[in-house]
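User: Could you check the structure of this?
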Amino acid sequence: MRAFVSVLIIVFCLLAAQPVRTVTAKDTWTSMRSRNYVLIGNAREEDIRTMAVQLERFRDIFTRQFKGAALNSPVPTTVIVFKSDSSFGPYKPRFRGRRVDVAGYFQSGFDMNYITLSAEPRRQYNPYEMIFHESVHLLVDNKVRTSPAWFNEGLAEYFSALDFVPEKTGGGKLVVFGKPILRHILMLRQKQLLPLVTLFGVDRTSPYYNEREKSGMFYAQSWALMHYLTHGQAGQRQPQLARFLELLASGNPLAQSFQQAFESDYATLEKELNEYVRQDKYRGTFVPYVEPADSDRELKSVPLTEAQALAYLGDLLLHYDRGDEAEKHLRQALALSPELSAANASLGMLRVHQRDFVAAKEHLQRAMKGDPQNYLAQYYYAYALSSEPMDQQQTVTGYAPETAAQMRTALTRAMEIAPGFPETYRLLAFVNLITNTRLDEAVTLLEHALTLSPGRHEFSYVLAQVHSRRKNYKAASVILEQVIAGNPNPQMRALAQEMLETVRLREKYQPKE
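Assistant: Sure, the predicted structure tokens are below.
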């Protein structure tokens, strides 16, 4: 099973680990719901509301720039706003047992994303920079199967500096595009630019992506290229940049998308970029910002109980793979409110990770009973049932008919509650694959999951397995070739390559009818 979370940190000052402190009854916890986020916190309502407005504005502005790509994310995002840095401290990420001093962090998961930060101002750190950066990745990676590293990181760095300022007259807002990022400018002044063939060849296994001595230049030049494509030549290439993302999102090959969008070769673009960097003039652009007509006019707050707050924090820690601390929070929540669905669901998933399936199913059944509309509880229950017969290598040879029926019932219910959540379709297709039944339905389920999340290569991998089982080897081969060509994960590429060789052998020696 792949990692449950991926934590991305931008500040690397380590503090000594301190004992865990949890929420207390004296804390006042509040919840708000905007169009795209659930926000909770023990910060002031005003601070939580400000965070909601900023996140929605960013998402609106970013997706407007690339309307043709239809960027979105079907995985829900919860934002936790702490009232102070000391309150945030126990929930900051850790590295080798020590707390990492961050202004905020973004943590992605297949079932839930978390944004976590403190409302207390800190002169050195801007939490929005990290949150905006990772929000770009969230939206692009969900939609684009073959997003090159230079484009993904350059775009994320460019939009991480997005800012809002009041108009001098009229009381409106201006959005600032392309604010200079000083660390990148200093790097570009000190070092020679990489040839574009080198920059464009960087992937997540490359030294320029992973080694500190080289990655600084990769990020700086990727940002500079994005700045040039947006602001250079009086913005003439900006529509081409948007077209490039649209073509990638449509599934076009990378080289073809580049040539079709930019109508240029590497040499020409490299010459233009060198001249832009030589001029050393990275000016931002001020554009009036008009709130969308359907924006949230008034975000209503709802008080949270101590048990509900503990459940949120316990789930956060669970996603951060801090199981012992998560369990303490969740058990405290259930001591206060034994039937609390969210706490039972999270504790059930913790028991799945511990392979205590008896306890896991008990908690997940309580979660489903406590809140029949909790689609994650339904999905988690099916996930627990699917995981129970798996060995240590996460392989399974079959499911008992009763177990398969229970999984189908839970997953069907989850789809009814949350039809936009893609994992339910993948898991139901996997059940059909393992039981060797309803394979046509499995294809339909996976194709729908891929319309929700085209960038999820693991969905494509399962679809290839289903096609192979149906002896449609050509379809399986095409999908696997796409996974190999576009996947940044070397392990997934290796699995796809191994399966592709098997599929080709099966096709070659398939009995002639």
